[in-house]
Structures are given as structure tokens and as C-alpha cells.
Amino acid sequence: MKINRLLKKLDRKLNSQLSNLYALNPIIERALDKYFFKKIGKLFTGSRLISSWLFLVIIMIVVLSTQTYLLRDYYQTLSYLPGGSYSVGILGTFSTVNPIYASSEFDSAISRLIFAPLFSYNDKNQLIPALASSYSVNNLGNVYTVHLKKGLIWQDNYPITSQDVVFTYTTIQNPNAQSPLFSSWWGIKIKALGKYTVQFSLPDALASFPEQLTTGILPYHLLANVSPSELRSASFNTTNPIGSGPFRWQTISIIGNSPTNAIVNIRLSPFSHYWQGDPKLGSFSIIAYANKQDLINDFVGGNLNAVIGLNSIPQSIQKVSNLKIYNFILTSGVYLFFKTSSGILADQQVRSALLQSIDVNKIIQSLGYTTHAVNEPLLEGQLAYNYAYHQASYNLKNAQSILSSDGWVLNKKGIREKNNQELSFNLVVPSYNSEYLKVASEIKKDFSKLGVVLILDPLDSTEFNNVLNSHQYNSILYGISIGIDPDVFVYWDSSQASIQSTTHLNLSEYSNPNADLSLEEGRTRLNPKLRVIEYKGLLEAWQKDVPAVGLYQPRVLFISHGHVRGMDNMLINSSSGIFNDVSKWEILKGYVSD
Q: Which of the ends of the chain has fewer CB neighbours closer than 10 A, N or C?
């Protein structure tokens, strides 16, 4: 009963509240219309205006951004920037980074990157000071005084002084050190004249001596306690060398389970206290490939930025996009050397006829790159080079006439014969150099037109070097490094003909008193005009005697994924000369404001 009364009471109160609410409804509607819906309408009207302005601003931003992008070339420049990593693969093997031992293409390259010399070469292949600041020579031409730059340091922060220079070259002179540079430093006295000055006293005047000061300098403070007889095998040469070159050693890693497929990767970082300044590249890797196909595959696959050591460009590489080919012409000459001391080729008339039967221009055109012909014992552009003493040019009819006059007649087989001896001899050529093999084949064809049988004898690296050093050949196809100075004494002076001589690099075993006198006088004169006069004797004798046939200046082929700023096709003296200006190389690009 109580519950029913309570429910009825609540019902009455609810009905009363609803009646009041119904009474307020018109008032609420007028308030909502006046203070909410009309405001909302104005808000929508305002939002449309705001939206229009926002849309206009967005359009302006897009237009300005597009205009900025399209017109950026007018106030911004696409330029090379510091940084980036670069890797170079070289066909060959790694044995030492020590500059007094480095002789292979790879060893010379890594040595050049880590060690700095007293003098180097610029992009015009001119000798310039490196660690040295200057040099002077006395009036007799036999005492050179070299001054070092002050404030230079090793990559472990020790100062570079004259003590390091004296140590480097006296170590070369020590026979126990077994440096291949030993013969070039025989009889030279070296001493320090203070902390930054070194004096070199030579047995005789030598105009080309500054060229010998391009070997990397070794740190005395790290190697002084190493016995000269143990230096060649010291861990310094292969694990953590300290130099003063543009890059410092970081790590070494080796892939492969045998010498025939080994890949040696040496990682380097820039040395900020290098004499030319902080290198532009952020890091550098130089990698030795024992296997040619591995080298090609890694380049095609993008694992390498560049390759060195190929004689030609494989088809697989030719298909690579953004390919950049650099041809670095060497200050070297490829010659066909005749052994003039014995046999058929001791006859000057035979040599003269063979010279005129070779179409040198055709050989150069077959190479596939532009280079210079070699017409003398000196190179075009060198001091004392003289066009009047060019070797005889191609003239097959004249060549045939010379042999006929010399008693060499064609037999029934079409081969020249004299006193029942056929005009036949061998030509030794390195089998690992495809370019040389091609040239040798062309020479054989030319000789066959003359009625001469040329027996090609291609040899692998070990066999070729043995034959080269022992002079066991009739003729040999080989390239000799000449450099920028006209001192070619080691290649043509009779004192260097014997295999017992200091260099035995007179591969023709050529002997002519006038040529000897010219070579000896020419290298001892400091005055360039006098040197030009003195070398005429060599040029005249060489032209007449024909101890060899000059062919062409070879190249070092550098193949890269894209252009490298700071690198241009130019003359270099050796393959490691590619890295003369490596501190200036740049590969990254970006826009910078003017």
C-alpha cells in the first residue's frame, strides 16, 4: 500500500515537470535559433573564407617551390662535395706497402697512398716539392741540398725531420736491406744538415737526380731498431704501416683460399695533415685481385667504383651504364728490341729492313685508343727530342731492296735465305698482356710480307722475367719506363748490356762509342741547352744503327663508374702516378648557393 502511494506521488511530480518543460519549449527554440543556429551559419560562412585563403596560400607555396626548383640553376650551382667512399680494384697481388720494396702495380699504388715522397708530380707531370720545400745544386752538379717543409707530421703525430730522409735512403743503400733501388743509390753520400735539411753528394754530376727523390719516405722512429736484413719481412710492411701520405691504413681483409683467387681489401681513411691538405674523399679502399674474372665481376656487379690492370675493356664492362674511361698515357716506350750482339740480328742491314717493313701507324690504330708514336730513344715532348732523327718510316719496297742487296733472296717457300740459312728468329712476348700479343701478331704479318719468319714465343710472367733478365732471346717486345728526363743511359749505354751489369737493361746489347759518349755527357750537364747538344750523338747513332724499333707509348687503363673530379687523362710516369692528385678526387654532387 505504501509503495502504491509513493508511486502515485512520483507520477504527479513528473507530470508537473513535463508541463513546465512544454511551457518553456518556445522560449528554448527561439534561443537556439538566435544564439546557436544563426552563429553556426556565420561560422560556416567564415570557414569558407578561411578555406579559400588557405587554399590560395597552398597554391602559392606550390608555385614558389616549383619555381625555386626550376630556377635553382640561376642562383645555385650543382657542385662536387667532400665525402663519399671510393674503391679501386687492381689486378695483381699484395706483398708489401713499403716504398723501398714496392715494385708491382698494386704494391706501388698502395705505397703511394700511404707514404709521401720528397718530390712528386702535378697534373702536368712536372716535378714539384712534396715533403720538401725546395732544393739547390752546386755548380758542379754533384751536390744537391734539399730543404724540408716544417710542421709536417707522421700519421701517428711524430714530426717529420731530416732524420727520416737520411734513414730511408741509407737503408736503400744497405745491401742487407735488399731493396731493388740499391743500384740507383750506389756511391751517393747522404747526411743531415740540421733538422730540416739533407745533403746528397754524388760521385759525378747527374742532372736527373731529383727524379730519384720520388720514393716514399719511411719513419725513422718506428723502424730504426729493425735490422736491415729483417726489414723486408717486417710486420710494418703488411699490418699497420705509418706514413705521411694522403690516406692512413685502417684494416686489411683477405678472401679466398689460394693465391690464385685471393682478394685483398685494404681500407684507408683520409689523413688530415697531408702536405696537400685534407683529402676530399671520406674513405678509400684499394683491393688486389689475383683472378681477372673476379675483378671484372665485382666491377660489373657494382662492388667496385673503378678497376686498373686490364689491357682492354671486356664486353661485360662495355655494357655497364654511366661508364667513364680514362687513358693515362705513360712516359714509356714499347719497343721491339733486337739482340744486336750475335746471330742474324747483328747485321745492321737486316735490322734496317725489318724496321721499314713494320707499319707502326697501323699498329697504333689497332690499339683502340689515342697515343703517341715512339720514333727515337727519347719521347716526343722531352728535352733533346729531335724530329730530324726519327727512325725510318714504313716502306716495304725499300725493305725488300735492302735485304736483296744484302744477299737475302727468296727461296721456293717464299722465305728469305742467305748461305743456306733462312731469315728466321724468335720474338719473346708476355702471354699475360693481350695488347702485346696483338702487336706481336701484327709484326709477324708485316715480316711475312718481307719473306721473314718470326716465331712468336709467348711466356708467362715467371718465364718472361727469367728470359728478360738473362737476355735469352733473339728479339723481345717490351715497354721501358723513360720518365720526363732524357737520361736513358741504362737502356742504351754499352756498360749496361751485360747481364752482369748493375741494371742489364740494355736489352738490345747495343754498343756504339758515340752513343756512349753522348749518354754520359748528356746526363752530366745541368744546362738544358747543353744537354740538347750532347744528346744529338745518341739520336744520330740510334737512327743509323737501328738497335730497336720504336712503336708507341702505352697506357694505363682506368675504368670508373662515373666521372671523378680531379682526375683527367694525362701523362704519368708509372701506373701509381694515377694517384698523384688523389687527395683532390671528388665523387659526391649537390646544389650549393652562389
A: N
